[in-house]
Each structure stands twice: as structure tokens, then as C-alpha cells.
Amino acid sequence: MTLERLIEEAHKLARPSVNLEPFGEDSQFAAVWGGKGIVGSEKRKRNHRHWISVDCRFLPPGFDGLTGVFSVYLSLGMDDWEESVVEWESDASLNRSSLNGGTPLFAQEALSLPNIDITLQLSSPDIQRWLVGRNWQPYWGFGDLPLEDQKLIFPFDDYLHERALAWKSDDDRSTYAALAGWQTGWAESTWDEYENKGMKLVLWTFKDSEPWIEVWWDGGQLHSVTRIT
Predict the structure, then answer these.
(1) Taking a C-beta distance cutoff of 8 angstroms, is the pair 152, 131 a contact?
(2) What is the pLDDT of residues 42-93, one digit of tens each?
(3) Are 224 and 72 in contact (CB under 8 A)?
(4) Which long-range contacts does 55-60 make (Cβ < 8 Å, 24+ apart)?
(5) Which of 16, 18, 177, 201 is the most exposed place for a label (fewest CB within 10 A)?
(6) How far is CA 60 from CA 15, 37, 55, in A?
(7) How many CB atoms lie within 10 A of CB 211?
(8) Phi, psi of 70, rounded to the nearest 5 degrees
(9) Residue 151 pLDDT > 50
(10) 28 DSSP assignment
(11) pTM for the whole thing?
(12) Residue 219 has what DSSP assignment?
């Protein structure tokens, strides 16, 4: 097995994504960060902090039925990020007059690479055979591989980590959030917790983390998840 083969596998598993950044063409105006919020009642806007609003037209293919605009809010309690909620209006639209004091974000097409655990668990038969030949199962965690194989695996993990927007500081990235793509696992849940329920990742925010906010689509409703470490 080689590092190049593992990198190739990760790129085979890559998913289309859309990065939301504070620069771009007007035709790619796709979201608003901060400000007073777009979708939701006036009570919601008063009692919660607006995090981001997104125009669903800019989602990659695969989100049939998800139209209009959704807004994510954080509760204004002792911890601003204590709870997140998502409001969705299927017939709403986003335009420059919607800024309400927020920062406009623009869509940039991208590819989302899986993390190392996803890559190994979903890998092609040749990689699976290599893993079995090392007396190792993908769900064990890559750190349990024999020492001689870690010399290969850890550079591969470094390659993926360097390209993972979630783990960069705000000073090292221009992307505020991403639409669709891969999520990573967390201490309290695995990467496929929601995918196993038939849900799709719609949004993952990076700016001003913690918290990281995820929005998931179950085919009929949106659900928000607040992540902290």
C-alpha cells in the first residue's frame, strides 16, 4: 500500500460541496452571516442570535424538495451557543436587501474529502484486503494499526487534516461555512450517525467556532445540531 493510493481513494469518495465565502460575483450571492436574520418570527429574531441564512438554490444536486431560504439561530442564554434552531420557508428568497446588517457570502464550488476513518471504512476492495492482511478492521480506528503501517497512515491523516476546513483557524481560512459534503465524527457521535437515519448534511459552519453548527435534511424537515469540543 502507498500514500498515493490512499489519497486517490479519498478523492474517489469526495462529495460535491459549496464553500460560502465573503467575496464573489453578485450572481453567486448565496448566504448571509450575522445581522438580524432572514427567516423566522420577530420573536425568534429578538430572542435568538442570527448565525447564518442560506439560499437553497445553491445546494449541490440531491436535495429534492429543499427550496427557499433557511436561517439558523443560537439561543441567547448564559452560553450564546447553548442551543441552535433552524427556521425554513420554502418560498422565501434571498437578495441584497436581505442583508439586515449581515455579511454577504458567495458560493464557490468545491469538493469535500472524507476523513481517514470514513476513507478506510468505505474503501475499495484492494484497500480492504490490505487492512485485513494487517489483522485490522477499519472501525477499530487508524491509530491501532501496527507501528510500521502508522508510518504510512499518519502522513495520510495529515494530508486530509490539512484540507479539512473545520479544523483551521479563522485566520487561516476564508470560508465561513460549507453546503453539503462530508461531516466528521465527534466525541459524542460517529460520522454516520445521521446518515444511517437517511439524513443528508446540508450545512456546516466554521466561522467563529466554537460552536460548529450543522443542519441536516431528512427529506421533509431541517434539523440543527450544535457541536462543541
Answers:
(1) no
(2) 767 677 889 999 999 999 998 989 999 999 998 866 454 568 889 999 999 8
(3) yes
(4) 55/29, 55/30, 55/31, 55/93, 55/94, 57/30, 58/18, 58/28, 58/30, 58/31, 58/107, 58/179, 59/18, 59/179, 59/180, 59/202, 60/15, 60/16, 60/17, 60/18, 60/179, 60/180
(5) 16
(6) 9, 23, 12
(7) 20
(8) -125, 150
(9) yes
(10) G
(11) 0.85
(12) S
Residue 68 class from Cβ within 10 Å (0-12 exposed, 13-18 middle, 19+ buried)? middle
Q: How far is CA 155 from CA 3, 4, 149, 173, 197, in A?
A: 8, 11, 11, 22, 32
More confident residue, 183 or 166: 183
Task: Residue 29: count other Cβ atoms within 10 Å of its Cβ.
Answer: 19
pLDDT at 131: 82
CA dist., res. 63 & res. 75, Å (int): 27
What the block records as the C-alpha cell of 153 is 497512515
| Helix, strand, coil shares, percent, the chain, to 5 | 30, 30, 40
What is the band of 117 on the pLDDT scale with cuts at 50, 70, 90? confident
